[in-house]
C-alpha cells in the first residue's frame, strides 16, 4: 500500500531493526521502545487490522508469536513477563493502519506501561450476559 510505513519496511525502502523475517512476516523493534525489546510483528501482506485477516493469514501470523516471545525471554533473562497486544482501529489506539502485534517485555510493575480493565460486572445481569453471548455466538457461526 502506498505511504504505509510498515509496507516500506517490508519492501526494504526504509530501515528497521529486524529481529525475525520469513516469507510471511517481519518482526522488528518498535521505535518507541516502551520497554527494552518492544517488538512489532507484522504480516508482509498489507491488511489494515484484524478484521481483514482470513484464517490462513491469521494462522501464519499468530503462529509466529511464541517464537518471538521465547527469543525475547532468552535475550533478556531479567524479563519477568510479557504483554502481547493487537490494537484495531483508532478508538482502540491503533496508530499505524497496517496490522501489527506488540510484544512488550516487562521487567517490573514500574515499567512505563499499564493496562486498566474496568470492572463493570455489576452493570450486567446474568440474562443480559447470556443475551450478549448468544448474539456473538450467532455471528461466529456465519
TrEMBL record:
<feature type="domain" description="HIT">
    <location>
        <begin position="5"/>
        <end position="115"/>
    </location>
</feature>
<dbReference type="GO" id="GO:0003824">
    <property type="term" value="F:catalytic activity"/>
</dbReference>
<feature type="active site" description="Tele-AMP-histidine intermediate">
    <location>
        <position position="100"/>
    </location>
</feature>
<dbReference type="GO" id="GO:0009117">
    <property type="term" value="P:nucleotide metabolic process"/>
</dbReference>
<dbReference type="InterPro" id="IPR036265">
    <property type="entry name" value="HIT-like_sf"/>
</dbReference>
<feature type="short sequence motif" description="Histidine triad motif">
    <location>
        <begin position="98"/>
        <end position="102"/>
    </location>
</feature>
<dbReference type="InterPro" id="IPR019808">
    <property type="entry name" value="Histidine_triad_CS"/>
</dbReference>
<dbReference type="InterPro" id="IPR039384">
    <property type="entry name" value="HINT"/>
</dbReference>
<dbReference type="InterPro" id="IPR011146">
    <property type="entry name" value="HIT-like"/>
</dbReference>
<dbReference type="InterPro" id="IPR001310">
    <property type="entry name" value="Histidine_triad_HIT"/>
</dbReference>
<protein>
    <submittedName>
        <fullName>Histidine triad (HIT) family protein</fullName>
    </submittedName>
</protein>
<dbReference type="Pfam" id="PF01230">
    <property type="entry name" value="HIT"/>
</dbReference>
